[in-house]
Amino acid sequence: MSVVFNFIYVFIIISCNVVAQSHPDQFLQCIESHNSNSISKVIYTPKNTSYTSKFLSSIQNIRFISPSMPKPSYIVTPVTESQIQAAVICSKANRLQIRVRCGGHDYEGLSYSSKVPFVLIDLINLRSIKIDTKNRVAWVQGGVLIGNLSYQIAKISPNLAFPAGLCPTVGVGGHFSGGGYGTLFRKYGLAADNVLDARIVNVNGQILDRKSMGEDLFWAIRGGGAASFGVITSWKIKLVEVPDIVTVFTINKTLEQNATDLVHRWQQIAYKFDRDLFVRILITRVNHTVQASFNSVFLGKIDKLVPLMQESFPELGLVREDCMERKWIEAILYFSDLPFGSSLDDLTKRNPNPRTYYKAKSDFVKDPIPKFALEKLWEFFKEDEAKDAQLILAPYGGRMSEISESEIPFPHRRGNLYEIQHLVYWDKEENKESQKYINWIRRLYKYITPFVSKNPRAAYLNYRDLDLGINNIEGNTSYAKASVWGNKYFKNNFKRLVQVKTKVDPSNFFRNEQSIPIFLS
Ligand SMILES: Cc1cc2nc3c(=O)[nH]c(=O)nc-3n(C[C@H](O)[C@H](O)[C@H](O)COP(=O)(O)OP(=O)(O)OC[C@H]3O[C@@H](n4cnc5c(N)ncnc54)[C@H](O)[C@@H]3O)c2cc1C
Ligand SMILES: *[C@@H]1O[C@H](CO)[C@@H](O)[C@H](O)[C@H]1NC(C)=O
Ligand SMILES: *[C@@H]1O[C@H](CO)[C@@H](O)[C@H](O)[C@H]1NC(C)=O
Ligand SMILES: *[C@@H]1O[C@H](CO)[C@@H](O)[C@H](O)[C@H]1NC(C)=O
Ligand SMILES: *[C@@H]1O[C@H](CO)[C@@H](O)[C@H](O)[C@H]1NC(C)=O
Ligand SMILES: *[C@@H]1O[C@H](CO)[C@@H](O)[C@H](O)[C@H]1NC(C)=O
Ligand SMILES: *[C@@H]1O[C@H](CO)[C@@H](O)[C@H](O)[C@H]1NC(C)=O
Q: Which residues are in the FAD-binding PCMH-type domain (predicted)?
C-alpha cells in the first residue's frame, strides 16, 4: 500500500518538476555522484538549447512528436557503459522510468515517449563496430545502425555480410532484440539467430555478458525485445558469407498484366525457392490500378539466375535484360529505401530520409490466399486513404523452417509461407485526418482475418502494433491480459519470457506499453 502511495506522490512531484525544474535536482545529483566522469556533457534537460534537436534526432514516425506527446525529463547520450549504469541506477532511485533508443524506428514510438516521467537513454554515441574477419565475428555497440554495419563489413571484406533488415537507419538495439529479417533470412535466418553474445546493463546497474547473464536471459533478448530486460550496450554477431557478385531485379505487374495470378502463384512457391533466391512482393496503387512489384536478390550471377527462375517461376517471365549484377553492398543500396541516385556512403548516414506519418500491422500466411480474396483485397487500394499504402510480402522457408519455434523467442518458423506487412503512410497536410488512415488499415486487417494465421493470429514484434493490446501503466498487468498480445508475438515462448522477466526484473522496472510483464504473486 505504502509503495503505491509513495509512487503516486513521487509521480506528482516529478511531473511538476518536468515543467518547473526549480527544485534541487536529485536525478542529476545522483548521476554525478555515481559517475563524475564529465557526465554532465551528455545530459540534456528541457533547459538546454539542444534538448529538442537531440530529442528529435532519430524519430522516424512523426505521428509521435506532436506538442502534446510527453517528452523526457532528461536525455542521456552515454559515451561509456558506466554512464548507462549510472543512468539506470539513478532513474530507479528517483522513480523515473527509462526509454532506450537506438535507431528510433519503433512503430509505436515506445523508444522515446511515455505517459509517465522518464529518462531517455539515447545510444547515438555508442557506435563502434569491431570486425574480426579471421573468426568471422564482430562486436557492435548498442547504438549502431544496420546500414553502417553492412557498409563497414563490406569495406573490410566484400564476401562477408550480416543477415539484417533492409532500411539502413534501423538500429541494432531494437532490430536484433526483436528478430530482424532481410534478404538473407531464407539462407541464414534472422539477425537474432546470428547473435553470439551480448553485454547488458541490468536493473541493478550491473553489466552482464552471456556467461554472467545465463542462457535464459540471453535467450530472451534475442527476439523478446531487449527493452523489457535492460540496456544492451553491445552485441557479438556471427558474420555470414556472400559471393562477389549477386543479381538484383524488379519486375512490375499491374492487374491488367496478370498481377493477381502471379501473386497467387508466388504464394505457393516462393517459400520453396532455392535459398539463394529471395523474391518479395510490394503491393501499391499505381495510376488507378494495383501493382505487384516482384523485388529480388539472388546470391549468384545472371547466368545461373535466369534458368533457375525459368524452372522455379516461369510465369513471371524473367529475362536477362531485367537483371543487374552487383556487389553485395550495392544490392543493399538497391534494397534500401534511399532515393534514386544515392551513393554507398549514404548507407552510413543517420537520417537521410524525409520522415512521415505511418501505421503498420503484420500477419503470417500459412495457406495461399484464394484469388477471389486477393481481388477483394485490391479493392482497398482503390480507396482515397490508400494513395501511399503498401503491402510487403516476404517469403519464408529455407533456413527459417529449420530453426525450432523455441530456439529464440521469435516463433514464426516452419509452416509460414510468407509474412505480410500492412502499411499506410500520410503526410503533414493530412495530419488532422490521421484517424482516417488508421481506420483504413484496421479495416483491411479485419477483412483479411479469415486468410491469415489463427489461434493465435501471429504478429511480428518489430512491427509493433498497440492495437493488439497494452499493459497497465502501473506495471501490474496480469499474465492473462498480456498474453492476448504476447501470444501473437511469441506464441508458446511468451510464458518463458514472463518467467525470465520475473526472475531478472522482479520489480518490473523496465516497462512500457508492451513490455513483458511479471507474474503477479
Ligand atoms: C523504415 C523501416 C524499415 C524497416 N525494415 C525492417 C526490415 O527490413 N526488417 C525487419 O525485421 N524490421 C524492419 N523494421 C522494423 C525494425 O526492425 C524495428 O522497428 C526495430 O525495433 C527498430 O529498432 P531501432 O533500434 O531502430 O528502434 P528503437 O525505436 O530505437 O527501439 C525499438 C525498441 O527496442 C528498444 N531498444 C532499442 N535499443 C535498445 C538497447 N540497446 N537496449 C535495450 N532496448 C533497446 C527500444 O526501447 C524500443 O522498445 C523497419 C522499420 C522501419 C521504420
Ligand atoms: C545542459 O545545461 C547544463 C546547465 O547549464 C550544463 O551543465 C550541461 O553541460 C548542459 N548539457 C550539455 C550536454 O551541454
Ligand atoms: C559508422 O561506423 C563507424 C565505425 O564504427 C563510426 O566511426 C561512425 O561514426 C559511424 N557512423 C555513424 C553515422 O553512425
Ligand atoms: C516498378 O515500380 C516502381 C513504383 O511504381 C518504380 O519506382 C520502379 O521504377 C518500377 N521498376 C521497374 C523495373 O519498372
Ligand atoms: C494472364 O494469364 C493467363 C492465364 O494464366 C494467360 O492466358 C494470359 O496470356 C496472361 N496475360 C498476360 C498479359 O500475361
Ligand atoms: C503511370 O502513368 C505514368 C504517366 O502517364 C506512366 O509514365 C507510367 O508508365 C504509368 N505506370 C504504370 C505502371 O502504368
Ligand atoms: C493496477 O494498479 C492500479 C493502481 O494501483 C489499480 O487501480 C488497478 O486496479 C490495478 N490493476 C490490476 C489488474 O491489478
A: 68-242
| 336 inside domain | no
Mutate to test the pocket of ligand 1, among 76, 88, 107, 175 (most ligand atoms within 8 A of CB): 175
pLDDT in tens, 479-502: 999 999 999 999 999 999 999 999
Examine the domain organization and report whether 191 and 250 are in the same domain: no
Per-residue HEC secondary structure of 230-274 comes to CEEEEEEEECEECCCCEEEEEEEEEHHHCHHHHHHHHHHHHHHCC
pTM: 0.94
Q: What is the CATH number of the domain that holds 215?
A: 3.30.465.10
Specify if 259 maps to a domain. Answer: yes
Cβ of 258 closer than 6 Å to ligand 5, yes or no, is yes
| 182/216 same-domain check | yes
The C-alpha cell that represents 433 in the structure block? 485526418
**Same structural domain, 299 and 164:** no
Asked if 447 is an active-site residue, the reply is no
The pLDDT value given to residue 10: 32
pLDDT band at 24; cut points 50, 70, 90: low
Q: Ligand 3, closest atom to CA 145?
A: 14
> What is the extent of the structural domain holding 368?
246-326+356-460
Dihedrals phi, psi of 79, to nearest 5 degrees: -110, -10
Note the maximum CA span of the chain: 73
Total count of domains within the chain: 3
Q: Is the pLDDT of residue 16 over 70?
A: no
Nearest CA to ligand 3 atom 2: 148
